[in-house]
Structure formats: structure tokens, C-alpha cells
Design goal:
- By secondary structure, this protein is α+β, with helices and mostly antiparallel strands.
- It has two domains: 107 residues, Immunoglobulins (Immunoglobulin-like), CATH 2.60.40.10; 134 residues, no CATH class.
- Helix content is 15%, strand content 32%.
- The protein is built from four helices and 13 strands.
- A hairpin with a 5-residue loop joins strand 6 and strand 7.
- The chain starts with 36 loop residues before the first strand and ends with a strand.
């Protein structure tokens, strides 16, 4: 093993020939801990990792109750339960479940789930030849991630001031000269400004719109006291998923459930949004007009 290896935990020393040396390598990791354990972990939105073990005590109880050859004449299975919306799962009557045969001695398995964003729980049990399921262990509960971009658009992300300072220092701005501190503050505020106005952009028919009413204050005039403020509008709603929707005659893509949401600039003056939905068969039509006015002083 090389000296640079991160797994090296003991320093190797040269020993004179003929002398015996005792090295304490610690206890070996056991193949099993003789405990009743069934744990599931999310690997990604579509896969669950499970590992398990059954204690000798539990094995003896199962053999005593169902016969000494119960393990040989039955199959071990994992039963995957969808328990979305359940406060507590007793081990039966889930929304739906599926079963998969496993090799018990492997003691770990990857489980594929078709529906991400759901809550799951797993049972380890025995399936007899006559189709009877004998539950043994019940796992913890996990919530799988949705596997898609979030529908929530209201969050705003920004860098904290300490991050500005670190990045500015890496850029070498601290070596510019005596006036570099004021320059650093200006660049930090400018960076923050760009971060704010860039959030005015959104996808869809209005992609690439930035707030034109926002102005960066003059740092030299405002000294260390200054104020910035801006606003934007979020137009949202819902209609029949099969309908076609336009805002100000521009088509808008609906989500699968018929909802829509658009982020738009909000400069000074009046802004009008003419929203129109037309049914798939072109018979029904609904219109909503939203008017907003901004005055910046």
C-alpha cells in the first residue's frame, strides 16, 4: 500500500529480521449481527436499496410455528407497499403493493418503483407454495423524490455576503490598490443587482424579459447607505388540461393537471393580461383580463 493511500491507518515500520511484531488490527467486521433488521434507503427517484437480517431467535420461532423446513419449502419475498397519505402503516391494507422474490442470503436488494414522489414501506416475508404470505419484518418509511423540476416558482436564491467576499478575493481585487475596498463593494452590489434582475426572466412566451425599471444606485454618491427595490408579477391559474390557453394572444403551455404559471416583468405604468382558454373541440371559450398598475417614486 502506498503512503498516499487514504485507507492506510497504521504506519508501516521496518523490523529487524528475527523479531516478532504484534499488530492490533481490531475486530473483523461480522457477516451479520444476528438482529431483526429491515432498512430501506432511496437511491434515486426510481430505485430503493434494502438490506436485512433475521435473528436466530426469530428463525427458531418461525420454524417452531410453521415447521422446521419452512425456509426450504417456501420463497423469501419483499412486498413493496405504496402508503402515500398514511400517517401510520400497520403492515396491511396499503394503497397498492407488489412482490418480488429474493435470495435471502444476499441480505440486500435494489427495488424498482414505477411512481416517484410516493411514500413506500417494505415487508420481508415468506411465500408458501399455496400462496400464503407470512410477514416477518417491516421496514422504515421513506418518501421518494419526484424526479422532476419543482412546480414552485416563488423561492428566491441569493449568495450571502461572505460568498461575495471569497469570490472577489479569488479574483485578485484585493491587490488592486488603496481604493480596492470601495471597488469590491461596488462589484458586490453590482453582482447582487444582476442576480436580482435575472430572476425576472422566465420560460414560455415571455422568455428573456428583464426588469427595465430597476436602476443601480450610484455607490459613490450614496456612500454606505442605499436602497434598491423592484417588483415582478406572477400570473397563474388553471383550466381543463385538454384546453388551449393564450395570454395576450401568445400560447402558454399547460401542466398535465391544467395549471399554468408565468413570471413577468412589472415596470412603471399599467400592464394588462388577457387570458383566454378554448376547449379542445373549439366550442367553449372563457376569458379573464387582469390589469395591474405600478408607480415607482
Amino acid at each position: 500500500m502506498s503512503k498516499s493511500s487514504s485507507s492506510q491507518v497504521r504506519k508501516m515500520e521496518r523490523v529487524e529480521q528475527g523479531k516478532s511484531v504484534y499488530l492490533d488490527t481490531g475486530y473483523p467486521i461480522p457477516a451479520r449481527y444476528n438482529e431483526d433488521t429491515l432498512v430501506i434507503l432511496p437511491r434515486d427517484p426510481y430505485w430503493i436499496f434494502a438490506y436485512w437480517d433475521i435473528s436466530d431467535k426469530t428463525s427458531s420461532q418461525l420454524k417452531k410455528k410453521y415447521g422446521s423446513d419452512i425456509f426450504e419449502k417456501s420463497n423469501f419475498v419483499l412486498r413493496i407497499h405504496d402508503i402515500t397519505g398514511f400517517k401510520k402503516f400497520p403492515g396491511s391494507r396499503s394503497r397498492k403493493f407488489k412482490e418480488m422474490s429474493i435470495n435471502f442470503n444476499v441480505r440486500n436488494w435494489y427495488i424498482n418503483v414505477e411512481n416517484p414522489g410516493r411514500t413506500y414501506c417494505v415487508q420481508l416475508g415468506i411465500k408458501t407454495k399455496d400462496g400464503k404470505f407470512i410477514p416477518i419484518l417491516l421496514s422504515n418509511t421513506i418518501i421518494m423524490s419526484s424526479g422532476r423540476v419543482s412546480d414552485v416558482l416563488g423561492e428566491q436564491w441569493m449568495l450571502i455576503y461572505e460568498d461575495y467576499q471569497k469570490l472577489l478575493k479569488l479574483s485578485g481585487i484585493d491587490k488592486v490598490g488603496v481604493g480596492s475596498l470601495e471597488m469590491a463593494k461596488f462589484l458586490a452590489k453590482r453582482w447582487e443587482y444582476l442576480n436580482i434582475v435575472s430572476r425576472g426572466a422566465f420560460s414560455g412566451a415571455f422568455s428573456g424579459v428583464f426588469s427595465r425599471g430597476f436602476k443601480m444606485p450610484n455607490i459613490s454618491q450614496a456612500r454606505n447607505f442605499w436602497l434598491i427595490a423592484d417588483a415582478e408579477l406572477i400570473v397563474y391559474g388553471a383550466t381543463d388540461p385538454s384546453a388551449s390557453l393564450t395570454i395576450n394572444s401568445e400560447p402558454v403551455q399547460l401542466n398535465p393537471d391544467g395549471t399554468f404559471s408565468l413570471r413577468v416583468e412589472f415596470p412603471d405604468g399599467k400592464k394588462e393580461f388577457k387570458i383566454k382558454a378554448i376547449s379542445k373541440d373549439k366550442i367553449d371559450e372563457r376569458k379573464i383580463t387582469i390589469t395591474a398598475e405600478r408607480k415607482t417614486r
